[in-house]
Structures are given as C-alpha cells and as structure tokens.
Amino acid sequence: VGVGWGGLVGGGGLVDLPTYPFERERFWLDPGVPPTGRTEADAALDRWSYRTQWTTATTPDTQPAAGPWLVVVPYGHSGAEQIADLIANTCELELVPMVVEAGQDRAELAERLREHATAVGVVSLLALDDAFDAEHESVPRGLLTTVTLTQALGDADTRAPLWILTTDAQMASGTDAVSGLNQATVWGLARVLATEIPHRWGGIVDLPAATDATAITLLGRILAGADVADQWAVRGARTLARRLTRTSISEHPAWEPSGTVLITGGTGALGAHVARGLATHGAEHLVLLSRQGMDAPGAAALRDELAARGAAVTVVGCDIGDRAALSAVLDQIPDQQPLTAVVHAAGQLDDSTIDRLTPDQMNRALRAKLLGAVNLHEVTRNRDLSAFVLFSSLAGTFGSFGQSNYAPGNAYLDALAAQRRAMGLPAISIAWGPWEGAGMSAALRRVEEWNGVPALSVDRALAALHRVAHHPDPNVVVADVDWPFWQEAAGADTLDPMYRSLTGESGGGPDRKPDRIPALRARVEAAPAAEREQLLLEAVRRIVGSVLGHDSPAAIDADRAFRDLGFDSLAAVELRNRLAAETGLRLPPAVVFDHPTVRDLVRYLLDGLAVPVVAEELSFADQLDRLEVSLGAASTGLDQPTRLQWAARLQALAIACSESDPTSVAADLESATDEDLFDFIRTEFGRS
Q: Which residue has the higher pLDDT, 337 or 31?
C-alpha cells in the first residue's frame, strides 16, 4: 500500500485499498483515529442484507367466526384427519369436512365448493400430503392440490378467506428439524396468494409435527382474526409471527474456496458470474453443470476465460433432476481435488398467475430448482463440504404477482438449508434480488425494479456471496429494497406486518392520502367529461406500448386482447404498477386480466378517476384540494382578462373565509354575476 502524505506532518492522505476482489474502495484515513475496519462497501452490503425471524405475537382470546367452516383434507392422510378432528373438538367449530383426492379435476372441485357458498372460512390441510405426485415427479402432491383448490375457489366465487396449514415446514425455533420439507413449497405459494387474491386470503400457519390440543387452541385464536400477521407458527404455548429484519454480513470472514466447486446452471448468465468470482477467489477446479454442457452458447469461451484466471474447468452436460447422472459426475471428480463446495444456481422460469398455472408448468420449473436440490443434498450429504450454497430468490420470501410457479421452489430451498443446518451440515439459502445483466428473465428483473428493488451490480452481488456463504443463519435475503417505493408499488393500504419494522410504518388505512396528485389523474379530472375517455385512452396506449417496447402507441390496438398484444403475467404486473403510479389509483393485481383490452381497462380506470363527487360528502379542505388541482390543470392557455377575473374571485373568497362560513361564501360567489362580483371586490378592496 502506498500512502502519499504530501510532505505534511500530521496530514491526511488518500489510500487505495483492495476490499473485495471485484472493486477497490477509496477512502480517507485520519491519523490519530483508529480505523474501524468498515468501508462504504461494507455498509452497503449490510443495507442489503436481511433475515427472517419468528417473534411472539399476541392473538385474541376469542373463537373463530360462527358459521360453517370448510376443512379440506387430503384423501387417505391420517395425520390430516387427526388434525381436522382436533379442530372440530377443540375450537368448537361448525365443521364441514371435504376430502380431496390427488389429481382432483378443477371443474368438479369448483362444483362441489358451490354447495358450500355459506362457509365463513376455508381451512386447507392439503399441504400435509407431502409425497411427490405420481404423474409430475418434481411436484409435491400437497402443492399441486393446494393450487387446484385455490383455482376452484376462484371459479366458485367463494368469498370466504383461505387458511393453509402445514406441519414442521418452517424453522420457527432453534430445535425445529424441518421434517415437512415439501410442505415448505406452499409457503412460497402463499406469498403470491397474498398478492394475487388479497380479498380471499386469510393466512398460513405452521403447526408442530406432534400437534396437540394446546396447538389447536392457539390455531383457533389465529383463525379468529388476528390481523397482526398472515404468516404464523405455533410452538409450545406460543404463537409466533414471521418478520423480516436486518442482519449484517460484512462482519463475517470471506469464503475462500479450495479444491473442486460444483456449480449447477454453470454455463448460464448467473452461473458464469459465480464461476468467475470463484476462480478469482482461488478455486482450483470448477465443475460447471448444465443440460447442454459444452453445446451451451458461450461455454467454450467461458471455459477459456476461467482457465486464464487460473482454475481448471470441467463443463458437463447433466440433468440434475436425474440423481444417477448427477452421482456419476461426482464420482469422476479427481481425488487430488476433492469436492469441497456446491453452488446450486440452476433454475427454469415458466411463470404464471395462480389462476392459469398448470401441473406441467410446475413440473418443468421445479425439476431443476427443487428436484435438483434434493439430489444435490442426497449425493453430497456424506462428503466433507465447506459450503452448500443455494440460490433462492425474493419470490419465495416476498412473493409477487405472476410468480406462482417460481416462488414455491425458492421457498423449498430456504427450508432445505434450514433442515441441513439442523442435521449439522453446511448450508445457506440466499434469497437474491435481481442482478444486473444476469438471470433467467429480463422481464422478471424489470418487474422487480418497478416494485422498488433495483438490480445489484454483479461485483457487489459477488462480494455479498463471499461474505454470506458462512453466515450463521440458514436463510439470508440480499436485495437493494427501496421500502417506501416498494410499499407504494405493492398497492396495499397498509404495509404487510412482515416488513413493517423496516420502514417504521405504523399502519395506514383507506383515508391515507398521497402527498401529491399524479399528473395524469389531474389532467383527466380537469378535462371536459366528453374528452376524458379519449385522453385516458391515448395515455394508456402510450404506457402499454412502452411496456411492450414499442416506439409509438400507434402500434397498440385498443380493442385487441392484451394476451394477443404479447402480454404475459410479468408484463401485466409492470403495466399495473405504472398505471397505479400515473393515476394514483389503488389497482388490484389482476386488473389487466380482469379487463382484457385497452379500451376495457380505460373504462375501468375512468370509473375510478372520474366518479361524480357530491359536494356535501367532501370536507371543505378536500374541496380546496380539488380546486387547487383543477386550477393548475385548467389555467393553461387562458387569456389575461380571464386570469384576472379568476384571481379577483379567489382573493375575495380568501378574505371572506376569515369572516364567514366558508361553504356559504363559496356558494354565494359561485352563483354571483360578474357585476355582483366586482361590486364585492370594490367593497372589500376599495378598488375599481
């Protein structure tokens, strides 16, 4: 390290220190002040780092709502049947059991549900069936039937809230073994359900594996309407709510790989970045697995690049969903460079909204993410590994509209890491935010950015990877979240309790007003009624064209279905977020699917923007707010005499307001003739 003191005794200096292999931080040293050892890069990493924790939460000492509760039980599952009996006997519910078989037809289930239209709540135990489906080997049967139930509830127009129960699917206490591993997939699904069907969502509760009457009593209190959370665990005599809190990763020693490191998805964009980082850190041998192997685009160039960094490289074509094939790859690793670490970065995106999700889609997406992780765990559990790193995603923790086929697999990785820790094995599951220029879908990254989660630079993400690999918690979130922006983009009146401590949000409500009125809303409300629809139509076509990447709104046919225009679920959520930002309206997540053309959507938005307002229903302050917006939007292009006339009327109103009832003065001025008005001005101001 060279320090230029400038020839000044006791002076300061500029020092260039290598803090991470991927960047160099410049900072000033003040002689006489001991260094803290932390850089701005450290602080940034910690700003992006979170962990989930379970905290004791109070539930009401009451019983659930009176009326029939529909309890849905998987066919032939004795454990689920026992819990259903405990609910009936302990909570004193009017229980209506419904047995659902694996492979239940959606339409038939919806017809059965219509017979229970008076149900005040739906409790699903379907997730407890955690065997893999016979026809879709990568999909837990409980996840598949839960998806079918959710779809059928929507088809039947069931308004009762849905509650999902699991057993030992979360590490809510230090002694949990996380034996219900496949059930954890439903926790990922639940985060999406909370976004896509908030009007029909109750929550999800993890019960202990040995559920007893005490646990069911606490469950009853949760079902009674505890609104402090929608993610619960019952342990002993406590009810625990899931929270997201900050954690530190900069204080942990950097991972220094050695020997052989196996990377799944190794020739993909994300895997390639990881491989470069590991080679720079000193990994001696990298085994890159992908379906195509050396036939993957750019594989040969990547191999040569990594070799130039000093690492031996083996690129292998392997379906990690095939355990025998994966085991054969490990058997070929040379003894002089033993396997020391695994990075599971493989995945396949085949996303959809919950209503349109199919079993085949689920099977494709979960084969690499979930089944690949199962196989990696099994074939390496007896090897002496220093690191077992699983690339999860925000989708499994936050959920997002349109990610019903992506979130479950990531939630599984989080649970697998927790289970391995309970077994004394190394593991970390990192729920990443988007990376710049990397990942499976540019559309997915764009949506996350619109939701207030900008992409991490690759260098910083790799720096985080090497700091978090040996973190004491099995699950860590690494993402650059703009919390106020994220909350607004989520379209919720109140912030999800899971994140509330991160923003200091104490809760809001329907009366909470935005700080400003968006420009498009002001333009529409100020325009003559006959022009509003056309004005809004042009604006929406412009936004739709931008989302789809068109240079001109002329390419957007207002009467053509969004699906035919090229919209998928991710584009739909981006459009919804942009419309919400430009109109100030609280738009439901499925607004684009509920109104399938631009013209249909415009008419829906128009109803929200231009509902006639009865003056008596607004406070005087609200009327002034509207007046201010209308003046700003309508004054453009007015001639000078008209401007002076408006100004005179407003001055008169302001003075009279301090002496009289403002509403009556406003009414008098509104009905006054020009001659009456100028007489009033002469009287008040002494002017002609």
A: 337
Question: In this structure, what token pair is assigned to residue 477?
Answer: 């979130």
User: Closest Cα to residue 203, out of 61, 59, 349, 81?
Assistant: 59
User: What is the CA 318 to chain-centroid distance, rounded?
Assistant: 31
Residue 217: both structure tokens together: 């009593």
pTM of the model: 0.75
278: exposed, middle or buried (C-beta count within 10 Å: 0-12, 13-18, 19+)? buried
Are 233 and 206 in contact, with CB atoms under 8 Å apart? yes
Residue 350: count other Cβ atoms within 10 Å of its Cβ: 16
What mean pLDDT is predicted for residues 463-472?
93
Radius of gyration of the chain (CA): 30
> Measuring CA to CA, which residue among 216, 199, 207, 187 is closest to residue 161?
199
Q: Going by CATH, does the domain composed of 519-609 fall within 1.10.1200.10?
A: yes
Mean pLDDT of 99-123: 95
Q: Structural domain boundaries of the chain? A: 1-37, 68-242, 260-488, 519-609, 639-688
Closest among 190, 43, 215 to 498, alpha carbons compared: 190
What per-residue string of b and e applies to 437-466 under the rule 16 or more CB within 10 Å gives b? Answer: ebbbeebbbbbbbbbbbbbbebbbbbbbbb
Sign, CA dihedral 636-640-641-645, equals positive
CB 41 within 8 A of CB 23: yes
DSSP code for 140:
B
Domains 260-488 and 519-609 share a fold: no
Instruction: Look up the CATH number of domain 260-488.
Output: 3.40.50.720
Checking if the pLDDT of 383 tops 80, the result is: yes
Q: Which residue is listed with tokens 């997002």?
A: 400
641 three-class SS = helix
Distance (Å, whole) CA 559 – CA 603: 12
* Angle subtended at Cα 214 by Cα 209 and Cα 220, rounded to the nearest 5 degrees: 95
pLDDT of residue 58: 83
Q: Rounded to 10 degrees, what is the CA torsion of 14, 19, 23, 25? A: -30
- Number of Cβ within 10 Å of residue 411's Cβ equals 32
What is the Cα–Cα distance from 360 to 138, expressed in whole angstroms? 10
Listed as own residue / partner, the contacts of 417-423 with beta carbons closer than 8 Å and 24 or more positions apart are 417/388, 417/390, 417/474, 417/475, 418/170, 418/171, 418/176, 418/178, 418/474, 418/475, 419/177, 419/178, 419/179, 419/181, 420/377, 420/388, 420/474, 421/171, 421/474, 422/171, 422/176, 422/177, 422/178, 423/381
What are 264-309's pLDDT values in tens digits? 999 999 999 999 999 998 899 999 999 999 999 999 999 999 999 9
What CATH class is the domain 68-242? alpha beta
